[in-house]
Design brief:
four-stranded antiparallel β-sheet; single chain; 16 strands; DUF4429 domain-containing protein; about 240 residues
Length: about 240
């Protein structure tokens, strides 16, 4: 319903007001307090890239969501950019949808390009954040927040490399000869001599860091798949850090 140039649509989980420049989603009533804490959401209409819309059916309410570069998809569950509405309320939401879509279509190519750049930047930031908080672990050694943590300390994971090796494989003399669980200070390639003979019933992951330090992780042969995956994950995260 349009009044004084503002379209108002009252829905099942919120009220939406659109004045041509701002989309205000209010959460009045018990549903708004329980689900959203009664907190409103203000969206710059010029940042909306798409209006997602689903008509109500016999079994489900309809829904509308306003997507932006920082909110690029409809979220499952409670979504601050989305409102549910009944079949009776649908006409006002159709009017709202059409009005916002008209604004989206009227944008210049320059404005569309700027929004596309913002969307790409947000996607990159989200990916980096996701990697930063990714957690992998094996046998007391963990990668989290860009750090490789051992029971005795932590180092930056950036530039590290990991290698899985079976204890039964004698073809490559490696750091595993120094001793499982060791933290080796100094260039890994300069270490020679066998201070530790590999156990054929074990598997080993050797993690080497750019400064020459290395960590050796030992595990039972039955954990080969887990250890190979841990090594692969270390390499993947280290390469993108």
């Amino acid at each position: 319903m349009a009044e004084n140039g503002t379209i108002t649509a009252d829905g099942h989980t919120g009220r939406v007001l659109f004045d041509g420049s701002t989309i205000q989603i209010e959460r009045p009533g018990l549903r708004g307090k329980i689900g959203y804490g009664g907190k409103p959401t203000s969206i710059n209409a010029n940042a909306v890239t798409q209006v997602w819309f689903a008509h109500p059916s016999e079994k489900a309410n309809g829904s509308i969501a306003f997507l932006t570069p920082g909110h690029p998809q409809v979220l499952k569950g409670l979504d601050s950019h989305s409102v549910l509405f009944t079949a009776k309320q649908a006409p006002h939401f159709v009017e709202l949808r059409d009005a916002v879509n008209a604004l989206v279509r009227s944008r210049s190519e320059g404005a569309k390009a700027a929004l596309a750049e913002q969307a790409a930047a947000h996607a990159t930031e989200k990916e980096i954040t996701s990697r930063s908080f990714e957690v992998i672990s094996y046998a007391g050694h963990k990668v989290s927040g860009g750090l490789f943590a051992t029971p005795t300390g932590a180092k930056s994971i950036a530039g590290a490399s990991a290698l899985f090796e079976s204890g039964a494989d004698h073809s490559r003399p490696t750091l595993t000869r120094i001793g499982a669980g060791a933290v080796i200070a100094g260039p890994a390639g300069a270490i020679v001599g066998g201070l530790f003979k590999k156990n054929t019933a074990k598997g080993y992951v050797t993690v080497e860091f750019p400064d020459g330090e290395a960590v050796i992780i030992e595990g039972p042969a039955k954990d080969e798949t887990k250890m190979r995956q841990f090594a692969a994950d270390v390499n993947r995260i280290a390469a993108s850090s």
